[in-house]
Design brief:
globular; binds 3-[(4S)-2,5-dioxoimidazolidin-4-yl]propanoic acid; about 400 residues; alpha/beta; binds fe (iii) ion; 6-stranded mixed beta sheet; about 35% helix
Length: about 400
């Protein structure tokens, strides 16, 4: 057990729900006990019993909770720069997918890569995120598309947690695309791979949540519903890639299953936001994919706000639609493209992202009882985290992960 640690001289953006924007405490202090936060408050009110505890003065620096990237496809082989060229000459993401490129091309390079190769590639992206204060990363399967290859992806994702000071949350995304061996037989793929593979992966303790790609070029709501029923039988939470390219009513399906989140949502109909809001699911916005695909249809941010839907922001790091391993860039894009405020962007990668991963009682807020995972920044105001482009203003990262 590590010694208690008292942080002083902090400008805290605690992201708690209070009357101050960002949950800001200008002259703040934090007491860390073990791997938890034990006390947070004004430095003038530090309880006298803490006198004598090891103290670190942060010199007025901004302190936020560790950032959370709640939607990534971080483990994959190869890249799709040639498809980027094709899209620039007019081909659409769907055209490329229908011609056998897209996700399937990454499935081929991922199946063909060794575990060590995939780990090395993923670590590079993970280190990019860590250099920007990220302490929790969700990683999906979805480039294996056989039971063995999907399970291999989740094993590799979990392995990353042993190689870096980071928490990894794993998601079963076998329903990402129909592999060539199941062309024209997508129902059989759900019944023979996506569902039995999930049962096997869950039995091995490799799955934290279940996701799918509900889209014309992927799976229908009916097919995803069968997968969700299997997830519920295993007591696993669900989430969904919904309304990214067209309005399939996937967000409402996720809502009906008490989903953690619906993700993308560019084509979510404003009239469906009330029903979505009632479910309490988080809207995960992925501005990197919007940007990369040159999308023009904006997610209905105004309606989401009006219905008090919590919005998270993530990189969606993947080789096709969002080759981005920078959470700060995603925050900037959420502000410039989706008109989020910098405060909403910070909540989107802290408190709301934690909720999207079912971790709201442990991560995403600086408050007593929460994990002592903090990012310390060389900036004066939290809006700067969404403002600067390029270069990381991270000063250091305080983690007590290994301390129980
Ligand atoms: N939507 C996306 O944006 C990613 N997956 C998905 O369902 C794209 C994945 C890829 O193109 O490789
Ligand atoms: Fe995605």
């Amino acid at each position: 057990m590590k010694q208690d640690l008292l942080l002083t001289g902090c400008k805290l953006a605690a992201t708690q729900q209070d009357e101050n924007a960002y949950g800001l405490i200008a002259g703040g202090a934090v007491l860390i006990r073990g791997n938890r936060i034990a006390w947070v408050g004004d430095a003038d009110n530090i309880p006298s019993e803490y006198a004598g505890i090891e103290t670190e003065d942060l010199d007025g620096r901004l302190v936020t909770p560790a950032l959370i990237d709640c939607h990534t496809h971080l483990v994959f082989g190869g890249n799709r720069a040639l498809e980027f060229e094709m899209r620039l000459s007019g081909a659409s993401y769907e055209d490329i997918a229908r011609a056998g490129g897209g996700i399937i091309s990454t499935v081929k390079t991922t199946r063909g890569a060794t575990d060590d190769e995939l780990i090395e590639l993923a670590l590079k992206r993970l280190d990019d995120l860590i250099s920007e204060g990220v302490g929790v990363v969700e990683i999906k399967s979805g480039y294996g598309l056989t039971i063995e290859d999907e399970i291999r992806m989740l094993r590799i994702a979990r392995r990353l947690e042993t190689l870096r000071p980071i928490k990894i949350v794993t998601t079963w995304l076998a329903a990402h695309a129909v592999p060539p061996e199941y062309t024209g037989r997508s129902d059989a793929y759900i019944d023979e791979v996506a569902i039995p593979g999930l049962q096997q992966a869950a039995a091995e303790g490799l799955v934290d949540a279940v996701d799918g790609f509900c889209e014309n070029i992927a799976f229908s709501c009916d097919q995803i519903e069968r997968l969700f029923i299997a997830a519920k039988t295993l007591s696993l939470p669900v989430k969904l890639h919904a309304e990214q390219l067209s309005d399939q009513k996937g967000a409402l399906l996720a809502a009906r299953f008490g989903g953690l989140s619906a993700d993308h949502l560019e084509y979510l109909n404003e009239n469906d936001t009330a029903a979505f809001a009632a479910s309490g699911a988080v809207a995960v916005l992925l501005p990197g994919a919007f940007y990369t695909l040159n999308e023009t249809k904006l997610p209905p941010v105004g309606a989401l706000r009006e219905h008090s839907v919590e919005m998270a922001i993530a990189t969606d790091c993947n080789p096709g639609s969002s080759p981005i391993s920078s959470i700060l860039t995603a925050m900037n894009m959420a502000c410039t493209q989706f008109a989020l405020t910098p405060e909403e962007a910070l909540l989107g990668v802290t408190r709301h992202a934690a909720k999207a991963l079912g971790l709201s009682d442990q991560y995403g807020v600086i408050a007593p009882g929460y994990r002592a995972e903090l990012a310390v920044w060389n900036v004066d105001h939290p809006a700067e985290l969404s403002y600067w482009l390029g270069g990381s203003p991270l000063h250091n990262y305080i983690t007590r992960r290994a301390t129980i």
